[in-house]
Amino acid sequence: MSDWHSQFLDHSSRIRLHIGDVSLGAVDRQVIDQLADLAGAGIHPAGYMPFSTPWTAGSPQSAQRNIRHWMTASIERSHIGKWSLIFGVRRNGVLVGSTNLSASNYSDERTVATGSWLGQDFQGVGTGKLMRAALLQLAFGELGAEFATSEVFADNFPSRAVNEHLGYVDDGERTVTREGKPARLKSYRLSHREWPRIADVQISGGKEMGDFLRH
């Protein structure tokens, strides 16, 4: 493990975000296992795939293996300029899902992408908007990002609503294959300048991570 990677893991483990009754903290092995169990219990209805990488296809056990592998590999492969910050999301202390910030060529582009999911039993109560607002505060307010991007299928109306509520603008779309059929994948983009700052997000450890990433 490189010195950069060791410092990255140390800084990421110290980040905590709070907005209302929603809190975000960096995942560790225990939380990854808990999130795998949550994913195995279901994220979306059978017959509908909201993810461009269909990691929930197949059995619950397959979804559990996929999320464990992706989270562990994303963290282990983080390096200068290309990294992933993965958080467990809790509401009133209950683990309800996960969200992440990722970047490629961050030193030059200052652009982050977001991804997220919630257990099916915890959807439809506004958690998605709150956890995204917290992530944007971290990205723009602490890490020095200039742009945030998001991709979502055109028929994923709840995720589109989160983007639009938080000021993202339409950045085009492309046709991809989803489970053997063509589907429209929409791109969204938000600039630091247009970011609707949310005043009640509390962050610890973000400034230190931002200083680290900028050096």
3D structure, described in words:
The chain is α+β, with helices and mostly antiparallel strands and 215 residues long. The chain has seven helices and nine strands. Helix 1 (3-13) packs antiparallel against helix 7 and helix 2 packs antiparallel against helix 3. The longest helix is centred in the N-terminal third of the chain and has 17 residues, at 60-76.
Structural class: alpha+beta
What is the straight-line distance between the termini? 19 Å
Count of runs of 4 or more consecutive helical residues: 7
* Global morphology: globular
Order of helices and strands: HEEHHEEHEHEHEEEH
- The strand order across the widest sheet is 7-8-6-5-4-3-2-1-9
Low-confidence stretches: none
Helix content: 25-40%
**Describe the biggest sheet?**
9 strands, mixed
| Fraction of residues in β-strands | 25-35%
Could you tell me the radius of gyration in angstroms? 16 Å
Find the count of extended strands (DSSP E, 2+ residues).
9
Provide mean pLDDT, rounded.
93
